[in-house]
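TICKET: design request
STATUS: open
ATTACHED STRUCTURE:
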């Protein structure tokens, strides 16, 4: 019976990880450019390779499907229609995002909501002027004069991207980064989160119900074990 409880406890720990994942998705259902994370079930071979007493944990994967595009009317808000990522400059080097709610900092640089410079074809973009426009190809004009083009990239292996926090992704060299010459950009708009809140709520309810079932099973097994122990004690 101890083995049964151990198996149930292990399954419950995996459910806790899934619940944390769902909770994070729901918390970001309204976050611009957020990509849903899901757990991919591990294979039987992976299970066999697990070390003894190690709780098997499903691997995390990112749903890179496009979220809905919403108009904002803000000149520096841009959304990618199709694949690709905006390149940005961070303290950790060049990283990538779909979060296109940009603005100008005090130095007139186009930056992300976190203040990181957005990269163009010649590095960070300085947009000094009154009328800033970004067209469907990512060309940036200020007061009618072209000053650069947004750097949009794609990856040969997008599944290799890893979260770097705040809607930003890092990519190893093996991911195969490549500049996209003709991106499809929607101006004055942002891409919303691709989280399906209703689906996530249903999943959360299912997890909670399963957890309740596990708790009842453990309670039943524990009570049966006590009864068996009492009976053995009487016989002795």
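STATUS: resolved
RESOLUTION: sequence designed for all positions
ATTACHED SEQUENCE:
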């Amino acid at each position: 019976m101890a083995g049964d409880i151990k198996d149930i406890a292990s399954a419950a720990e995996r459910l806790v990880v899934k619940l944390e994942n769902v909770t994070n998705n729901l918390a970001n259902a309204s976050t611009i450019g957020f990509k849903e994370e899901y757990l991919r079930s591990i294979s039987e071979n992976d299970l066999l390779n697990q070390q003894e007493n190690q709780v098997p944990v499903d691997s995390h994967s990112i749903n890179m499907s496009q979220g809905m595009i919403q108009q904002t009317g803000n000149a520096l808000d841009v959304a990618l229609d199709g694949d690709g990522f905006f390149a940005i400059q961070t303290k950790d080097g060049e990283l990538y995002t779909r979060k296109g709610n940009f603005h100008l900092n005090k130095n007139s640089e186009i930056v992300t909501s976190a203040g990181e410079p957005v990269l163009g074809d010649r590095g960070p973009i300085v947009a000094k002027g009154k009328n800033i426009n970004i067209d469907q190809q990512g060309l940036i004009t200020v007061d009618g004069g072209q000053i650069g083009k947004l750097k949009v990239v794609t990856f040969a292996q997008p599944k290799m991207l890893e979260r770097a926090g705040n809607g930003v992704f890092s990519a190893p060299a093996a991911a195969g980064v490549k500049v996209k010459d003709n991106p499809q950009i929607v101006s004055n708009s942002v891409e919303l989160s691709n989280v399906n809140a209703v689906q996530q709520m249903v999943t959360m309810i299912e997890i909670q119900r399963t957890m309740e079932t596990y708790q009842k099973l453990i309670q039943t097994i524990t009570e049966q074990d006590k009864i068996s122990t009492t009976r053995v004690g009487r016989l002795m």
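CLOSING REMARK: Residues 43-48, 50-56 have pLDDT under 50 and may be disordered. Helices lie at 2-27, 44-49, 197-235.
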